[in-house]
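Side project, low priority. Logging it here so it doesn't get lost.
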Amino acid sequence: MNTLILMVALAALGPAAAAAQNRPPGQQQMQQRRGMMERPADRALMEARVMERFLEVTAERLGLAAEGRTRLQAILRRSAEERRAMHQESERVQAGLMEAVRSEAAEDRVRGLLTNITELRRRELRLWEREQRELEQLLTPAQHAMYMVQWLRLQESIRGIMGRRQGGPPPGR
């Protein structure tokens, strides 16, 4: 099962890796320092490929008919869009917090940024809870459990790939 999830992630990353190999050496090093994707469009394309493949494999494993697959796809797409927006907001808030610390900003500014981070985490939790309720309406408990295992394995595989690309240790080690 882990091998399948990793293959899905790697298959989606293949075009990005191939493109990186065709760059001059200086650009390759710069790309590696920046992480996996240079532009948000590249990242969005990679995410879309991974999610589409994940959806195909998951729908098949769960035995979902076309209607169930379509409903699962809608749930995942809606959640992914919200997560992407929250991620972008989180990056802005974190950058603001780092700048505030460097510039020794007023306590009110730092307190506001910390409050923003806390609220983002609450929003993430509410999104996860809503997504789980929607999945409960679509899947049997056994299917939901299978879905969760596959989702967690995919996330772990992606973290491992990202860690290796950024020169860090694999997750959990």
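Brief comment: Residues 1-30 have pLDDT under 50 and may be disordered.
Revisit when time allows.
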